[in-house]
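Page 37, continued from 36.
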């Protein structure tokens, strides 16, 4: 079907560049983008909420720096070591 739409100049320029880089037609690029947008919006309301598993505890161990991933890994590995 043929129709006329108004598109922001910069957006059209970027779409044309993408069409050239990908070897697709401008029509194909616009159709793909519209399909993706509509698909995303349809699926947005159907998602199950994410349930995060948490663990309780009294507090952080003394000397544990959460910004130092290597040191944190050492602490975790040493707590897993039965010996």
């Amino acid at each position: 079907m043929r129709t006329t739409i108004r598109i922001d100049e910069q957006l059209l320029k970027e779409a044309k560049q993408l069409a050239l880089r990908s070897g697709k037609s401008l029509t194909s690029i616009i159709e793909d983008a519209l399909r993706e947008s509509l698909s995303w919006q349809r699926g947005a309301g159907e998602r199950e909420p994410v349930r995060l598993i948490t663990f309780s505890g009294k507090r952080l161990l003394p000397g544990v720096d959460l910004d130092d991933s290597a040191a944190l890994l050492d602490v975790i590995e040493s707590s897993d070591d039965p010996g």
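The helical segments are 9-22, 26-44, 69-80. Flag for discussion at group meeting. Residues 9-44 form one domain.
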